[in-house]
From TrEMBL, chain A:
Residues 26-141 form the Aldehyde oxidase/xanthine dehydrogenase a/b hammerhead domain. SUPFAM superfamilies: CO dehydrogenase molybdoprotein N-domain-like, Molybdenum cofactor-binding domain. This is Xanthine dehydrogenase family protein molybdopterin-binding subunit. Gene3D superfamilies: Aldehyde oxidase/xanthine dehydrogenase, a/b hammerhead, Aldehyde oxidase/xanthine dehydrogenase, molybdopterin binding domain. The lineage of its organism: Bacteria, Bacillati, Actinomycetota, Actinomycetes, Pseudonocardiales. GO terms for molecular function: iron ion binding; oxidoreductase activity. It comes from the Bacteria. InterPro entries: Ald_Oxase/Xan_DH_a/b, Ald_Oxase/Xan_DH_a/b_sf, Ald_Oxase/xanthine_DH-like, AldOxase/xan_DH_MoCoBD1, AldOxase/xan_DH_MoCoBD2, AldOxase/xan_DH_Mopterin-bd_sf. Keywords: Molybdenum, Oxidoreductase. Its cofactor is Mo-molybdopterin cytosine dinucleotide. It holds the Pfam family Ald_Xan_dh_C. Residues 1-10 have a biased composition (Polar residues). Residues 1-23 are annotated as: Disordered.
TrEMBL record, chain B:
The keyword Iron-sulfur applies. SUPFAM superfamilies: 2Fe-2S ferredoxin-like, CO dehydrogenase ISP C-domain like. One of its GO terms (molecular function) is 2 iron, 2 sulfur cluster binding. It holds the Pfam family Fer2_2. It comes from Haloechinothrix aidingensis. This is (2Fe-2S)-binding protein. Residues 5-81 form the 2Fe-2S ferredoxin-type domain. CDD domains: fer2 (cd00207). It comes from the Bacteria.
Length: 794, 167
């Protein structure tokens, strides 16, 4: 359902199935591990079994002697060629940046840090060789978690630092102290989101071919950011960007995890250079838990001040980002974003928001869909419900009265972001009426009468998308840009090819781009081919495919480019038809005089005139070919939003939470493809429910991860996830041609706090407050027992 | 580790004979020796289900099966589902109902759903969720997949599909 007027479109806004689906459904598509290149050999990485130690000896001689082994390298071999792994985000002024090489040289600082690598005839032999490498470790004191890292007598990860704090910063708006002093009500809590990760079902991988004779590095890489990867390979390996080619195959899920630039690409490149063979290096599932970006891991100690009438006066607190033993590609970026979004959709005039980024002996922190915002959402959504309870107000009405009104947009949040447009109260109403319509309130009443603990959770979220204006991103600490570039080309046969620096990880980039081109030009969608994933032929994109950029920025560039290309096609058509371009229309691949369909030419005629038979057909004023390039650097980011509602049942005996039903009223501006949009929302919510209830990297006191398999790290299956119902309203993004806002991260942002809201509601008679995620059965049982024995939980 | 065994398997109607070490998994044999890369590996410890194939008509995890165990067997993989140049009913339904995003779990999901519909042609939504719960999808939230399997059952029941072929 939509609250905007239906537009007369042929492709845009329509539920077009994925154009890549047939090959994905038949096993004929090509993912990373499906690629074999001539002369290829395979690698494997030996990883540290301990969290903090000095390497006193490595002996690789036995591994080298194993038949089938081509090369074995250690950190000392690697540093002869490669520099340190790059960091691109520096949001905290004067932050201490702990960098590491792709393989450890003298000290390991997390379980799973690479210490040596092998290239062999195949992966089986490479893993045999790993077992023959001898390493002696001299144990160092382990900083296993945040609390240990912050303790006054804590062992230090870096001896020359005063403590384990990498950096801290405070953002302020108004006067928070004064606001809290004059408040009638203050609510606060310590919120903890434990670590988890993006966990695409396809793990990461690459094939590196570094040919010293041509000086070229040719890489197949399962990445969301091929242009960024090329830049960073150049930086780390001291190669010219022009000598590096990065191609991406089909990507089996990315979720931000495959945005980051990992050691394995560099390790494979070094192995290739030395062995003079292309080297494939894949991460297996067990490795992924220690080698792919760890995410979410944060604590937020925050409080909110309100007047007795419900007006929010202030927000203040400290957020702790639990960084690892070295910084990952995005540094403290996600924890920073959690702080920037901690006020959410509410007008809060006085803010004092502190971020502390803290090093621990855990794997490096990195990107995961939502990128910090899910934890900002926990802060504002949990606090507003605590406030509603304390004030005795409706949690719906308290939200509504603190929203900016539609005419207050663009609305400055108080910390960095300016929200572009919004009808927040309408969206809230859409959700609450859907809850009523679906009979949840009645279900809850009946359930409770029957002794069941049924709860309804609510959450309102904002999603910053279309990251972002390049110069602003530079100013806040990004060593990269945010623009996007696209080529739209009609060929000599009148068919269209779009080339983009974005890539598709299943979210439907190719399909939505084809829809926009078909709509913008007036050609059948079957005539559009989308090409991505090759830095040698595709244009440059700032950043990569992350930050909800693909539909917004790539889409905007396509809208611009197709507009100009269509004008040229019509001018050529006018020459052929001896008509005025103003009188022409382009529909279904034919240019015709409006109202006189018999007077027409096809796009094939136009293509022939622009590429081959120019004489007498192409106007003298036109250059040959049919190609438009557009570079789009947005003036502002987009802010989409939604109200999510979740129906749950809690089993008070076991602490298990059953998700019964879920709905979301969503506004991401103009929707290109409702089928794919709903798929993004549902998939994101399912991931968040995993993070809210099941998924956790559990560490012991030695910094060992106890959950390094799918037997222990539980991602939701079909029986864990409820049905979904989506309701849309469309408030266009004012500065994005096409009006689209980002939506790929909506579900992950919305879905964690709403689990807490629903559980609280199911146990409202006990006064339980969920502040910790995942809320596993043992944790919930503990809350229930504490509440039953009369211990207040807030 | 040079103890090689010669095995013969019939995959999607084609006979393959090749040598392999005793430790080679069926998944690796299919992918490396037969060139059938449609069968995917997501965990290699039997949980994610992406590698599900039919071994003598029964769905198995090919990452937990050694190739030598399959000697003489009839195997069906995702590459064997389409009918000539056309997607089969279940595949079409997955496309129409957005039952896939990245496509990585999809081969396992299709094999699992094929077996489910063969054993229970008229499943309820709950039965579909239970039936596919052994294959993990990280993209879709299962909504589109459940819809796809239900719709495939409907269209076969309604005779919309000429061949009615699910397996």
């Amino acid at each position: 359902m939509t609250t905007t007027e239906p537009q007369s479109t042929k492709y845009a806004g329509k539920p077009q199935p994925g154009i890549d689906d047939p090959s994905l459904l038949t096993g004929s598509s090509t993912y990373m591990d499906d690629i074999t290149v001539p002369r290829m050999i395979e690698g494997a990485v030996l990883r540290s079994p301990v969290a903090h130690a000095r390497i006193t000896r490595i002996d690789v001689s036995k591994a080298r002697e194993l038949p089938g082994v081509f090369d074995v390298i250690t950190g000392n071999d690697l540093v002869e060629i490669a520099g340190e792994q790059p960091v691109i985000w520096y949001p905290i002024p004067e932050q201490r940046i702990a960098r590491a090489h792709a393989l450890a040289t003298d000290t390991v600082r997390w379980v799973g840090q690479g210490v040596a690598a092998v290239a062999a005839v195949d992966r089986y032999v490479a893993e045999d060789a790993l077992e023959l490498i001898e390493v002696d470790y001299e144990p160092l004191p382990v900083v296993a978690d945040l609390e240990q890292a912050l303790a006054p007598d804590a062992p230090k990860l870096y001896e020359d630092w005063p403590d384990n704090v990498s950096g801290s910063m405070t953002l302020t708006a108004g006067d928070a102290d004064a606001a809290f002093a004059e408040a009638d009500v203050v609510v606060g809590a310590s919120f903890r989101h434990h670590p988890g990760y993006g966990c695409p079902i396809e793990t990461r991988g690459c094939i590196s071919n570094w040919d010293v004779f041509s000086g070229r590095l040719d890489v197949w890489l399962g990445t969301q950011s091929p242009n960024l990867a090329r830049e960073l390979f150049a930086q780390v390996l001291s190669l010219p960007v022009s000598k590096i080619r990065v191609r991406t195959p089909e990507i089996g899920g990315g979720f931000g995890l495959k945005f980051d630039f990992y050691p394995e690409g560099v390790i494979a490149a070094i192995l290739s250079r030395r062995s003079k063979r292309p080297v494939k290096l894949l991460e297996d599932r067990q490795e992924s838990f220690v080698a792919s970006s760890r995410s979410r891991d944060m604590r937020h100690d925050f409080e909110m001040a309100l007047r007795s009438d419900g007006t929010i006066l202030g927000l203040r607190g400290t957020a702790y980002g639990v960084l690892g033993g070295a910084l990952g590609t995005v540094g403290a970026g996600p924890p920073w974003a959690s702080v920037l979004t901690s006020m959410g959709p509410y007008k809060i005039p006085n803010q004092e928001l502190t971020l502390k980024a803290v090093m621990t002996n855990r794997s490096p922190y990195g990107s995961y869909r939502g990128w910090g915002v899910p934890k900002g959402n926990i802060v504002h959504e949990r606090l507003i419900e605590l406030a509603a309870r304390k004030l005795g107000m409706s949690r719906i009405e308290l939200r509504r009265m603190n929203f900016p009104a539609p005419d207050e947009f663009p609305y400055f949040s108080g910390a960095a972001f300016t929200f572009d447009s919004g009808r927040y109260a309408d969206c809230l109403d859409l959700a609450t009426s859907a809850v009523e319509e679906r009979g949840w309130n009645e279900l809850q009443r009946e359930g409770r009468e029957a002794g069941r603990s049924i709860g309804i959770g609510y959450g309102f979220h904002i999603e910053p998308g279309a990251y972002g204006p390049s110069r602003v991103l530079n100013m806040v600490g990004l060593d990269h840009s945010g623009f996007d570039e696209v080529y739209v080309r009609m060929d000599s046969a009148g068919k269209v090819t779009v080339l983009s620096g974005q890539i598709s990880t299943g979210q439907g980039t190719h399909t939505t781009y084809a829809q926009l081109v078909a709509e913008g030009l007036g050609v059948p969608i079957e005539d559009v081919t989308v090409v991505t994933g090759d830095t040698e032929s595709c244009p440059y994109t700032g950043y990569g495919t992350g930050g909800s950029r693909a539909a917004t920025l790539g889409g905007a560039a396509i809208v611009n480019a197709t507009g100009r290309l269509k004008a040229k096609i019509l001018r050529i058509g006018a020459e052929l038809l001896e008509a005025d371009p103003e009188d022409l229309e382009l529909d279904n691949g034919r240019v015709s005089v409006r109202g006189a369909a018999d007077s027409s030419v096809s796009t094939a005629d136009i293509g022939y005139s622009a590429y081959r038979m120019l004489n007498g057909r192409l106007p003298e004023s036109e250059t040959p070919t049919l190609e438009e390039v557009d570079v789009f650097d947005p003036a502002n980011m987009t802010t989409s939003y939604a109200c999510t509602a979740l129906l749950v049942e809690v089993d008070r005996q076991t602490g298990a939470v059953k998700l019964l039903d879920c709905l979301q009223a969503h506004d991401a501006g103009v929707i290109i493809n409702p089928l794919l949009a709903d798929g993004q929302l549902a998939g994101g919510l399912a991931q968040a429910f995993g993070g809210g209830l099941f998924e956790e990297f559990v560490y012991d006191d030695d910094g060992q991860i106890r959950t390094a398999s799918f037997m222990d790290y539980l991602i939701p299956s079909a029986t864990d996830i409820p049905p979904f119902h989506f309701y849309h309203q469309e408030t266009p993004a004012p500065h994005i041609p096409g009006g689209m806002k980002g939506l790929g991260e909506a579900g992950t942002i919305a879905g964690v706090s709403v689990v807490g809201s629903a559980i609280d509601d199911a146990l409202s008679d006990l006064g339980v407050t969920v502040c910790e995620f995942p809320m596993t059965p043992p944790r919930l049982l503990e809350l229930i027992r504490a509440a039953q024995s009369g211990e207040a939980t807030t | 580790m040079s103890d090689k065994h010669t095995i013969t398997v019939t995959v999607n109607g084609h006979v393959y004979t090749d040598d392999c070490e005793a430790r080679m998994t069926l998944a690796d044999f299919l992918r490396r020796q037969c060139g059938l890369t449609g069968t995917h590996l997501g965990c290699e410890h039997g949980v994610c289900g992406a590698c599900t194939v039919f071994l003598d008509d029964v769905a198995v995890r090919s990452c937990l099966t050694f190739a030598v165990q399959a000697d003489g067997a009839r195997i069906k993989t995702v590459e064997g589902l389409a009918e000539g140049d056309e997607l089969n009913t279940l595949q079409k339904s997955f496309q129409e109902n957005h039952g896939l995003q990245c496509g990585f779990c999809t081969p396992g999901m299709l094999m699992c759903a094929t077996e489910l519909l063969r054993e229970n042609p008229n499943p309820t939504e709950t039965e579909v969720r239970e039936g596919i719960s052994g294959v993990l999808c990280r993209c879709t939230g299962y909504d589109g997949i459940v819809r796809s399997v239900m719709a495939a059952a409907d269209s076969r029941r309604d005779g919309v599909s000429e061949s009615g072929s699910i397996s």
